[in-house]
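User: Fold this; tokens only.

Assistant: Input:
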Amino acid sequence: MCLAGAPRSRFRGVGPAFLFGTIAGRPWPFWWREGNGLCQQDGFFTFVALSVCQPLKKLRQFLSNFLKVSLPTLVVLWLLLELFFRWGISASERPDGDFDADHLLVKFDSTAGEGTYTIGPFAGQQGRWHINNRGWNNLRHYQLGKSNKTRIAIIGDSFVESFQVDVDKSFHHLMAQQLGDGYECYSFGWSGSPLSHYLHVGRYVKDTYQPDIVVVNLVHNDFVQSLAEYNPYRGIFKTLDVGENIDEVDPVPYHLPWMKQVLKNSAVFRYLHYNLKFETQFRMLFDREALVHDSLAYMKLMDQEEERIHRAATYSIEGLREVFADQRLIFVMDCPRPSVYAGKMEKDWQYRYNQLARELVTATGAEFIDLADTMKEDFAKNQQPFNTELDLHWNEYGHEVVARRLLQQLQLAP
């Protein structure tokens, strides 16, 4: 029953009898407002039903609209983006990792085949990769044991991994082409590896492939990240616990979490993660000091941890010299290229690592190539950068320069 123009009081008869809903077996009415009048209904449970059912009705309507309109729209949009980031702007592809439990070593899945690594929001830089039978980015099929050819093993991080250029444009492939059939160039590169891990890889290479010549490529973050507490990929690589003594910290079995394994099949996810570096950008939103920290971290640590960094680097370089006591051993040190372009290389804090590497390597009797000298001279003559604006890894020209310099070194008497 509804009464137009009824009084504005919301409820009538609220009391103990209302709560039980009856007086002498008869329902006690209450009133509620509807439009311009009051409506009467009987019983407490009707009041509860009205209070609960109205929100449920709105929830059902929302879910119905979402399932019928919003969800199909999102699915179609996702499918269109999947197609776009496969055939339009190519989302970056990276092969799955595989943990070698026998050698405690992370490599790539040898069944990964081929793919394309892209850089930047418009995939402006691309590199074709090829994972060989032993889980490394190299066109050559690796043979175990001693070879009847001169075998060169090249150890390093992402600069040796060389995803930023086509695999046949990497410096180790260019070297193999120039050296001819009497030589083999085996590369062992994994992004993020520190100097301490090169020692670990070196032991594996010596036992498994018995090379004649070994090249170890060094970059500036190799030194700090050899210390266990400063390695952002702790657990994947061999690191060092440098205290009163130096203890090696072994890698632990690496397995990609199942959720990431599923998401890697999505071109949209790969585009956000690799091309846009969404995770890093999201972190920057909440930590404005992170960018400053990243850019100054190694400079500060060089001052704060100079003695421990020196000890870790000495341990690793002397260890490599001991492992390859019977092989020709060549260390190559990268160049602080932005400061070369600016004509301020000697003032760059990173150049201190070049000086440290030269000091430690020459003390062991191994050969040393400082790309700071090579690239400074080449840039002064040709004015051609060794990396793109999208990425600080070597571009095709950078790989050519490194290959030429190593070929010159190999012609020298050891």
